[in-house]
C-alpha cells in the first residue's frame, strides 16, 4: 500500500519572530502603504514594477468608490458594483503585496508598525488612512444617526429606509408613521445634496408604485445646513442652482440651522424647532483617522497630519501622509488642500515619483495641486459644474458628472454594471435593488439605555 505524499509550499520571507506578518524576502527598500483609498491606490500604481517592495495594508480587502455610496444607500446600485478587490487590482504587480490587517500603532524609533495580525518593518511609511464621520462631540447624534463613509454605512441606510417604510405601512399610529417616513440629512456639501436629491427621486417615482396605500407626500425630506448656502466650496451660481433643484423636488432645505440633539425619533435644531424622524443621515463633517504613535503636536485642525510641501509628516524623515489625512500647510495653503478624490489621486502619483527620487538621492520639487474643477448632481439631468471660468448647470453638467464618475470606477465589469443601471434608471426611474437582505438594528440610544 502506497504511503500518502504530502506537499508543502515554503515562502521565503523575512519573518524572524512568530508575531511578524510574513512577507517575501527582499533587499529592495520597503514602502508600506496604510489605506487603499484613492490616494493609496494611486501610489501603488506609480510604484508598480519599480525597484521597491510595496506592501499595501487595509482593514478591508477591497477599494470602494465613495462618490457613489449614496446610490447604494438609495437602492440605485448594488454594493458590488462600486467595490473592487485589492488582489484583483494588483494582479500581475510582482513587487506589490496586499495584507488584510488593521494598523494599531506606529513605532517610528524602530521603523515598525503593529497591526491586529502582527508587526511589519518599513523603510518608508505612507499613511493614506482617510477620514471618518465627525459628530462634533454630540454623543446622542452619533448613537442614533448614520454616517455615510463606507459601503457598510450605505447598506445600513438602505436597510433602515426600507424597513421603516415597510413598518410605516403596518402601523396605525399616525405619529409613528410620520417618524418612519421623515428623512433628515445633515450637511449641505456634495454628499448631503446628492443624498437628498436621490431620496427625493425615490419619493417621487418609486414610493407611489411600491406603497400605493399612502400618498408620496407622506415622505418628507429635510436637508439641514449650518451656514447660509449649499455647496460652500463651489461657486454662488452652483449653490443657488442646487437650492432651486432641491426645492423643485420638494426637499425642505433649512439653511443657517444646526442639529443640537437627536434621540432616535426627534431631531432638535438650534432654533428650537423639532422634526419627528426615525431616519437621520449625517454628512456634516469628517475628521482624520490614523493609528497612534504620531506625536500630537503634528496633528492640526480636523485631526489631520501636518506635512511639508513634499508630503512628509512634520517631525519625521521617512513617514508620509497623502489624501484626506494630509494637511499640506504652506503660505499658499494655510488650511491644506481640499479633501476630495482629485487631491488624493494627485498626491498619490506625486509621492510615487518623490519616493523613487529620494531612494536614488535625487532632488524633488514640492507638491502643486491642480484644481480640475468640481461637480455635483442633484438628480437626473440636474447637476452643477465649476470648471475654472466655466460654470454651468443642467443636462450637460449632469452628463459630464456621469462620464467622469463612470470612467473613475475601478474595473470594466463594475463600469458596465453601473452604466447599465444608470441607463435603465434614465428611461424608467427604476431602482431594482430594493431588497432587505438583512435586518438593520439601530445602536442602543445613549438617552434610552437603562442604567
From TrEMBL:
<dbReference type="Pfam" id="PF22366">
    <property type="entry name" value="NDH2_C"/>
</dbReference>
<keyword id="KW-0274">FAD</keyword>
<feature type="domain" description="FAD/NAD(P)-binding">
    <location>
        <begin position="30"/>
        <end position="348"/>
    </location>
</feature>
<dbReference type="GO" id="GO:0050136">
    <property type="term" value="F:NADH dehydrogenase (quinone) (non-electrogenic) activity"/>
</dbReference>
<keyword id="KW-0560">Oxidoreductase</keyword>
<comment type="similarity">
    <text>Belongs to the NADH dehydrogenase family.</text>
</comment>
<dbReference type="Pfam" id="PF07992">
    <property type="entry name" value="Pyr_redox_2"/>
</dbReference>
<dbReference type="InterPro" id="IPR054585">
    <property type="entry name" value="NDH2-like_C"/>
</dbReference>
<protein>
    <recommendedName>
        <fullName>NADH:ubiquinone reductase (non-electrogenic)</fullName>
        <ecNumber>1.6.5.9</ecNumber>
    </recommendedName>
</protein>
<keyword id="KW-0520">NAD</keyword>
<dbReference type="InterPro" id="IPR036188">
    <property type="entry name" value="FAD/NAD-bd_sf"/>
</dbReference>
<feature type="domain" description="External alternative NADH-ubiquinone oxidoreductase-like C-terminal">
    <location>
        <begin position="372"/>
        <end position="427"/>
    </location>
</feature>
<dbReference type="InterPro" id="IPR023753">
    <property type="entry name" value="FAD/NAD-binding_dom"/>
</dbReference>
<keyword id="KW-0809">Transit peptide</keyword>
<keyword id="KW-0285">Flavoprotein</keyword>
<dbReference type="InterPro" id="IPR045024">
    <property type="entry name" value="NDH-2"/>
</dbReference>
Amino acid at each position: 500500500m502506497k504511503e500518502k505524499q504530502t506537499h508543502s509550499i515554503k515562502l521565503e520571507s523575512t519573518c524572524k519572530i512568530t508575531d511578524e506578518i510574513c512577507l517575501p524576502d527582499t533587499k529592495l527598500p520597503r514602502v508600506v502603504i496604510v489605506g487603499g483609498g484613492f490616494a493609496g491606490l494611486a501610489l501603488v500604481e506609480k510604484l508598480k514594477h519599480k525597484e521597491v517592495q510595496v506592501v499595501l495594508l487595509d482593514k478591508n480587502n477591497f477599494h470602494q468608490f465613495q462618490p457613489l455610496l449614496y446610490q447604494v444607500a438609495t437602492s440605485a446600485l448594488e454594493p458590488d458594483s462600486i467595490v473592487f478587490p485589492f488582489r484583483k487590482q494588483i494582479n500581475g504587480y510582482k513587487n506589490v503585496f496586499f495584507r488584510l490587517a488593521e494598523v494599531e500603532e506606529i513605532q517610528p524609533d524602530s521603523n515598525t508598525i503593529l497591526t491586529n495580525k502582527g508587526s511589519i518593518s518599513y523603510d518608508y511609511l505612507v499613511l493614506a488612512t482617510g477620514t471618518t464621520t465627525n459628530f462634533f462631540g454630540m454623543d446622542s447624534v452619533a448613537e442614533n444617526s448614520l454616517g455615510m463613509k463606507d459601503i457598510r454605512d450605505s447598506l445600513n441606510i438602505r436597510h433602515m429606509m426600507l424597513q421603516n417604510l415597510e413598518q410605516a405601512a403596518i402601523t396605525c399610529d399616525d405619529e409613528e408613521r410620520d417618524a418612519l417616513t421623515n428623512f433628515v440629512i445633515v450637511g449641505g456639501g456634495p454628499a448631503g445634496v446628492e443624498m437628498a436629491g436621490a431620496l427625493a427621486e425615490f419619493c417621487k417615482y418609486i414610493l407611489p408604485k411600491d406603497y400605493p396605500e399612502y400618498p408620496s407626500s407622506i415622505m418628507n425630506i429635510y436637508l439641514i445646513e449650518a451656514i447660509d448656502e449649499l455647496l460652500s466650496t463651489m461657486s454662488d451660481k452652483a449653490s443657488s442652482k442646487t437650492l432651486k433643484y432641491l426645492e423643485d423636488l420638494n426637499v425642505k432645505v433649512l439653511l443657517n440651522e444646526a442639529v443640537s440633539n437627536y434621540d432616535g425619533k426627534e431631531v432638535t435644531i438650534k432654533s428650537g424647532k423639532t422634526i419627528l424622524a426615525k431616519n437621520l443621515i449625517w454628512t456634516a463633517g469628517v475628521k482624520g483617522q490614523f493609528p497612534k504613535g504620531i506625536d500630537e503636536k503634528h496633528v492640526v485642525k480636523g485631526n489631520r497630519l501636518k506635512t511639508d510641501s513634499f508630503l512628509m509628516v512634520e517631525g519625521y524623515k521617512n513617514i508620509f501622509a497623502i489624501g484626506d489625512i494630509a494637511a499640506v500647510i504652506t503660505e499658499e495653503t494655510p488650511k491644506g488642500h481640499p479633501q476630495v478624490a482629485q487631491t488624493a489621486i494627485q498626491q498619490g502619483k506625486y509621492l510615487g515619483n518623490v519616493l523613487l527620487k529620494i531612494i536614488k538621492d535625487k532632488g524633488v520639487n514640492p507638491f502643486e495641486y491642480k484644481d480640475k474643477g468640481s461637480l455635483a448632481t442633484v438628480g437626473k439631468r440636474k447637476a452643477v459644474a465649476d470648471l475654472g471660468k466655466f460654470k454651468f448647470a443642467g443636462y450637460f453638467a449632469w452628463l459630464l458628472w456621469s462620464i467622469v464618475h463612470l470612467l473613475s470606477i475601478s474595473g470594466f465589469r463594475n463600469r458596465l454594471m453601473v452604466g447599465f443601471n444608470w441607463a435603465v434608471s434614465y428611461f424608467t426611474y427604476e431602482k431594482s435593488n430594493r431588497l432587505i437582505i438583512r435586518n438593520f438594528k439601530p445602536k442602543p440610544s445613549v438617552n434610552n439605555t437603562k442604567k
